[in-house]
Amino acid sequence: MPYEPRVVAGVEITPLCDAVGPMGPPIRKPLPEMFAGSSFGPDEEWVLHFHCFLLRAGGRTVLVDTGIGGADSPATWAPLPGRLGAELAAAGVAPADVDVVVVTHLHSDHAGGCVVDGAPAYPNARYLLQRAEVEWASGPVRERIILPLGDRVDVVDGDAEPVPGVRVLHAPGHTPGHQCVQVGDVLMSGDLLHHPAQLADPTIRYVYDEDPDLAVRTRRSLLARAAVLAPAHFPQPFIALSN
Questions:
Q1: CA-to-CA distance for 27 and 30, rounded, in angstroms?
Q2: In what helix (H) or strand (E) does residue 140 lie, and over which residues does it extend?
Q3: Is domain 6-240 given the CATH code 3.40.50.10310 in the classification?
Q4: What stretch or stretches form a coiled coil here (predicted)?
Q5: CA angle 128-129-132, nearest 5°?
Q6: How confident is the model at residue 40 (pLDDT cuts 50, 70, 90)?
Q7: pTM of the entire predicted model
Q8: Residue 101 C-alpha from the chain's centroid
């Protein structure tokens, strides 16, 4: 079931948990060099939550990220299949009800549910992506996501406001066109952070950031602008920040 929604600046924010599971060994292995062992569980497991967010604003329905997708998703390292469809249904939302999909970036655990059976999963929605992300995408990502979405994609350069009260912020570093979503003082951060240790020390690098130095600068800048963090991969969907 979805988490309880919060209303912020007139926008209802409902966190949706697409999946929960340990990070697979091929991806998990490099992380102990970056994060202290105490940051993990007793078996040094790093259990990830995969959160998407449903926004209702002025009669419009916005989905932030599409999760890991179905059993055939390229996110083979993640706990497949995702349950985003069931979470949306429990919140009273059908795929055709979604007006805008903000894809924070094109990694498979955030964009894996954009397309189903070769067609847009949210048939009436506009899919918002940064130009830098679209230009960076190649290979299977372009073939399995960008091309099937076709003219449903709205490409933006930098910050945008697709729906009044819902701001999209270009947040490069993890990927060139990574973006976050801000509603009032709540920041839906995508992969701006991956582990709670980065809240205590934003300079902690992550091995899968395309530009680690830029990611640190972006992380510092955006965390200073928010009072509440809505992270993609932490256990809690909302975290109060002490700026």
A1: 7
A2: helix 139-141
A3: no
A4: none
A5: 160
A6: low
A7: 0.92
A8: 11
